[in-house]
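TL;DR need structure tokens for one chain.
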Amino acid sequence: MFTLPDLPYDCAALEPFIDTETMRIHHDGHHGAYVKNLNEALENYPNLQKLKVEELLQTLDKLPEEIRIKIRNNAGGHYNHSLFWQMLSPDKGQTPEGKLLQAINTSFGSFDTFKEKFTQVGMGRFGSGWVWLINNSGNLEIMDTPNQDNLISSGKFPVLGLDVWEHAYYLKYKNKRADYIAAWWNVVNWKGILYNFESRSRFPGHL
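>> reply
TL;DR here they are.
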């Protein structure tokens, strides 16, 4: 059975950029619900309970049709958020370094240009979804996905991800997604993102 991972920092650690109450509701309420719903969807499928969340998402087309959509939504929500918490850090004001910064400069021209393009994609994502930075054989690309869809279902792995569902920001920023994205840059865990970029595997930790 899947479990809700603890936050790697206190709910108040990202203040003032992401407020305490939003973090608590986002983690305990929304992520917790994805885990609960995922376990419920797998109750009658003991063989599937043995799989990792990545394995479920990479084999969606082979899952029983009656639970496929539930697995897609809830395993996707669990996977995306498990990564997202680790992509944030209370060590505020970090910037990319080393090979990651070199790759950003090569792919986008500069870090500032990358931030502008990433923000544009985040603002352009209609409704709920995510914005991702991916490593495509050394070339960095920006993509977005709807709802709780994720990249590993299509064979890609996220280096960096941003949740642009309204539940991620509405208490503090209301309908001003641009203000939320501008604030989010201050709490990106660039040290962790560098590890993620270099290892080409998910952050260490239990999913």
